[in-house]
Design a protein that fits this description.
The protein is an alpha/beta fold and about 725 residues long. The protein is built from 30 helices and 20 strands.
Length: about 725
């Protein structure tokens, strides 16, 4: 056994120590299940062993399933077989004739906590970091080896649904209150308490294996209180949307499982698990939110051969909303910050933003005042460029104007060391063009943060034509210091995220131009999984901004910022003085003391058509418009990997996570189907949906962007 060992003691209590030989955490995969089955069989056959202490040699007990294994894609048959192997492993523990006690010295999540639930007793270390729970819903799955069944029986239906549907994890005190652990003890008493429990001679037969056991909700929906609870749970799931199948599957598992004999309930759970794991939604979520995200944060796009670097002092030019946020996350990462603006009061206002963010954290008990003071002390507000001397990195976040940025660049470069990097936090202006103002264009790079910087984890890093590999590597090191997620793109107007995001807002405005009901537009976007509708979003970002970007790009060489439909709507709205919420109202009215609502005068200026389209087609338009533009970015070389595309979409502007991102969405639809449906949309609504010859060729070759997509379908059909 590579991943665990058995230690026997004179008192007859064996200790099974989990210790993954290949990873820093214990994880559930085929190798672990095989070892666990072997260990359990050996324990069951050894008459000298009277009980088992299950613990870990790692800091944590077990992190859960090996997502790298799950992301490869499974057919329903393969997924069910995987689930049943783990289920049988747990049943072998329960029916071994020996009592098992889980000594949890650290967090136990997902499959790790399912393992603990299969034990006869659970003791958790008294440590706030020792979280337990079943968060599988966060990756589009449900616990697949008895978790929904055992949790429902042990904690009760309501507590189980709360934990399973929220995916939240709980600290020791709450875990004890919920009865999902039996004891909470200091770390130095953990093993002794486990041994003491075994010494009481506990019954090794679980309640559900006692003859005559009755499932807790045998009467089903005939109990009014239970019927109400399930009805409300179903309503809450419906309210959040239907794009992810996991919530309804979890609800069904708990509902059915608490009415059935135990082993039959496990079979039902396994089938629901198999359905989810074989669904592309789970693979999409796992690949983008875990595999690709972690790889990016570990330097997947970092050029090789460049020594690791560390920024000790950063200059942030511009103390507005973006600059203030960049200053805060830099200081919070332990970096000295010079926050520069036109005058000291303006710069100080930028520093005050950090104080405000820190103050809220202190109030919530998430930060000590002394730690907050340390962070604030690292930020120096100033209007003096001379203080930039000694900076390793500059991040310019001034107004989105080429002339202003050029002037700022020249002033900063007159002071900063020759080896310092210069990053521009621009969202649309080409980096190669901005770098013309620099005397060292090889050290000039785009660093596009997202607002609010302290809450948004993505940074879009843009390589200019002269940006060196060393500059890219050092910039990625800086982003790693900030604990942000980077994507790397090549230079182009709007780069990737801004260029594709505009397709979302302009598709919404195009629909207004066509006479589609505004509420229908907003609801379709939210039903597809976007956090807010395009019209509400335009009110917040202002309509002037996208119009200015389009106008600035007009006439430039190789302009990709053209808009097919919708621009006249925005110009008319601006002309009427309804360009934003800030201006007093836009597509929505914002009455004081009441909820916002669609502006009633909108229909007068943009009449609603008598015939309204199907909601599904509106959802498809939003998704296809952005996916198609992303494919163009890959074709043009603005993007180099589908992983960057998907990360940028999900974490940059909120493309629905269930899709995995814009490129994963194409693979989910199937590239052949995508091209065929895009042709239909292009015929109905315009050339923005028209596939290029490059994309058509990929479709003809049945060549997905991610290689495993086709192989899963082939196995499913086999």
């Amino acid at each position: 056994m590579r991943h665990m060992k058995i230690e026997k003691a004179a008192d007859g209590f064996a200790t099974l120590i989990l210790d993954n030989a290949d990873e820093s955490m214990n994880i559930v995969n085929d190798a672990f299940i095989a070892d666990m089955a072997e260990a359990t069989a050996a324990i069951a056959a050894d008459d000298s062993i009277k009980g088992v202490i299950l613990t870990s040699a790692k800091k944590a007990f077990m992190a859960g399933a090996d997502l790298k294994q799950l992301v490869r894609g499974y057919s329903k048959q393969e997924a069910y077989a995987f689930s049943q192997k783990a289920t049988q492993m747990h049943r072998a523990m329960e029916m071994s004739g020996k009592p098992w006690v889980a000594a949890l010295g650290g967090l136990a999540l997902g499959g790790g906590f399912e393992l603990a639930l299969a034990c006869h007793h659970r003791i958790l270390v008294d440590d706030a970091r020792a979280l337990v729970g079943l968060p599988e819903i966060n990756v589009g799955l449900l616990p697949g080896s008895g978790g929904t069944v055992r949790l429902g029986i042990i904690a009760g239906m309501k507590a189980a649904l709360d934990l399973l549907l929220s995916g939240r994890t709980v600290a020791p005190a709450e875990a004890l209150k919920l009865k999902i652990v039996d004891e909470v003890v200091p770390a130095d008493q953990l093993i002794d308490r486990a041994r003491a429990w075994l010494a009481t001679g506990p019954d090794p037969v679980k309640p559900w294996d006692v003859k005559g056991w009755v499932p807790p909700q045998k009467k089903g929906m005939t109990v009014p209180e239970d019927a109400l609870a399930y009805t409300l749970a179903a309503a809450n799931i419906a309210k959040k949307g239907y794009n992810t199948p996991a919530p309804l599957a979890i609800l069904s598992c708990v509902f059915e499982g608490l009415q059935l004999p135990f082993d039959k309930a496990l079979t039902v759970e396994g089938k629901y698990f198999a359905k989810l794991l074989s669904d592309p939604v789970a693979s999409n979520i796992i690949r983008t939110s875990f595999i690709s995200k972690q790889a990016a944060e570990k330097g997947a796009r970092r050029p090789a051969g460049v020594a690791k670097s560390e920024v000790k002092k950063v200059g942030v030019l511009g103390a507005g909303m973006m600059g203030a946020g960049i200053a805060y996350v830099s200081a919070n990462a332990g970096i000295e910050v010079v926050l520069l603006d036109r005058d000291v009061p303006t710069a100080q206002k930028g520093k005050d933003y950090s104080a405000k963010v820190q103050g809220k954290l202190v109030e919530k008990g998430k930060l000590t005042q002394s730690r907050a003071d340390e962070v604030l002390a690292r930020i120096t507000p100033t209007d003096d460029y001379a203080l930039l001397d000694g900076c390793d990195m500059i991040v310019e976040a001034v107004f989105e104007d080429i002339g202003i940025k050029a002037d700022t660049t020249r002033k900063a470069e007159a002071v900063i060391p020759a080896g310092a990097l210069f990053g521009s936090n621009t969202s649309t202006l080409p980096i190669s063009q901005l770098a013309q103002a620099s005397s060292r264009p090889d050290k000039y790079i785009g660093t596009h943060f997202f607002s609010p910087v302290d809450r948004m984890g993505l940074v879009e890093v843009i390589r200019g034509k002269q940006t060196s590999d060393e500059t890219l590597a050092r910039t990625l090191d800086f982003i790693a210091q900030l604990r942000k997620t980077p994507i790397v793109v090549n230079d182009s107007r709007g780069f990737y995220t801004s260029r594709v995001f505009r397709m979302f807002i302009f598709e919404g405005v195009a629909m207004v131009e066509e006479g589609i009901e505004p509420a229908r537009i907003e609801n379709a976007a939210k039903a597809a999984g976007f956090p807010t509708g395009p019209l509400a979003l335009l009110d917040e970002v202002t309509m002037e901004l996208p119009v200015k970007i389009v106008d600035d790009a007009a006439g430039t060489k190789g302009n990709t910022y053209t808009i097919e439909r919708g621009l006249p709507v925005l110009r008319k709205m601006i002309g009427m003085g309804r360009g934003s919420r800030k201006a007093g109202g836009g597509f929505y009215d914002y009455p004081q003391g009441a909820s916002k609502h669609i502006w009633k005068g909108l229909a007068e200026h943009f009449p609603v058509a008598a015939r309204q389209p199907d909601q599904e087609e509106l959802k498809q338009r939003f998704l296809f418009a952005q996916a198609m533009e992303t494919a163009r970015c890959l074709e043009e070389g603005v993007l180099e990997t589908p992983q960057d595309a998907d990360l940028g979409a999900v974490y940059g502007w909120g493309f629905p996570l269930w899709t995995g991102g814009t490129i994963s969405y194409i693979d989910t639809v199937g590239i052949e189907n995508f091209v065929a449906w895009a042709d239909e949309l292009a015929w109905k609504y315009g050339d923005r949906f028209l596939p290029s010859a490059w994309l058509r060729a990929k479709a003809e070759r049945r060549e997905p962007f991610y290689g495993e997509a086709a192989s899963v379908k082939d196995r499913e059909m086999a």
